[in-house]
Write a structure and sequence with these properties.
By secondary structure, the protein is of the alpha/beta class. The chain has 10 helices and 10 strands. The structure holds S-adenosylmethionine.
């Protein structure tokens, strides 16, 4: 094929591979930053014994277990209870009490992975605003993570940064050193499979949205689009919390103001 400039267009095996993955899994890898995603995919494919992407796509088409492992690798499910403690202190001392004045807190954990963030929100809300009616929705594209989140089980490593007092109050210890969320937390958390790139939450559906360590993998345009839609889903006075290394670009255009580091308030 020849382009309008007369230069022969190079065949792009990465693009073909991503289109093939979208057909297999619905995940559109072309909307994630190419540099790091492509490196991760090629390294993983080589480790699995496939030197080239077309060959690896064939393997993924015919081996569902291999596809599961591949998706595990690319969606990056790392999380932790009370991840970034300074954010949770701010939530417990200021944001949750502020939101509780309305009598209810509807929270969304966008990119919830296996639920550590959602259960930390639940514990924080029940501690700081015990009388508010609190509900937490967790959404993640990775079905296996959503299934794990519904189990409400965490390892000792998941809990390594959690305040001991909060763990004792809201989780039950297991013999293997892990922790299970108590029924009070489970009762207010629910988890669904969903793609943040497609999700169109209702306007003002939430008082608190956490979207941390998830959009960092998206291209800048896709990230901005996701932030804009999450901002629309917040009621005036609600908060959007992003990850400790993230920011919303042009917050005013999305009706948000930066009130504290990584914390945006809907105007
Ligand atoms: C690094 S984890 C972040 C978990 C949690 N928010 C935290 O900060 O600890 C990123 C999660 O985003 C999810 N994810 C990636 N792309 C997504 C998409 N398009 N829609 C929904 N979730 C997505 C991944 O499956 C993964 O579980």
């Amino acid at each position: 094929m020849t382009s309008p400039t007369g230069v022969a267009a190079q065949h792009d095996d990465y693009v073909d591979f991503c289109k093939g993955i979208q057909r297999l899994s619905t995940i559109d890898l072309l909307r994630y930053k190419r540099g790091q995603m492509e490196r991760r995919i090629r390294t993983f494919a080589e480790r699995r014994g496939a030197a080239e992407l077309p060959g690896y796509l064939q393997i993924l088409r015919s081996q569902p277990e291999e596809l599961e492992q591949f998706l595990d690798r690319v969606t990056i499910n790392v999380s932790e209870l009370w991840r970034n403690p300074e954010q949770w202190q701010l939530l417990e001392r200021q944001i949750v009490p502020d939101l509780a004045q309305a009598g209810r807190i509807r929270a969304l954990s966008a990119g919830c992975s296996y639920g550590a963030e959602a259960f930390t929100v639940a514990a924080t809300c029940l501690t700081a605003a015990p009388r508010a009616k609190t509900t937490i929705a967790g959404v993640d594209i990775d079905r296996r993570m959503v299934e794990r989140a519904r189990q409400a089980r965490f390892s000792a490593s998941d809990a390594r940064g959690a305040p001991r007092e909060a763990l004792d109050r809201w989780f039950t210890p297991r013999d293997d050193g892990g922790w299970d969320a108590r029924p009070e937390l489970r009762a207010i958390c629910r988890f669904d499979v969903g793609d943040l790139l497609e999700l169109r939450p209702r306007e003002q559906a939430y008082d608190l949205v956490l979207c941390r360590n998830t959009v960092i993998y998206f291209t800048d345009d896709v990230r901005d689009d996701v932030h804009a839609r999450l901002a629309t889903a917040l009621r005036p006075g609600g908060y959007l919390i992003v990850g400790a290394t993230e920011r919303v670009s042009d917050p005013a255009a999305r009706g948000l103001e930066l009130t504290r580091p990584f914390t945006y308030r809907k105007l």
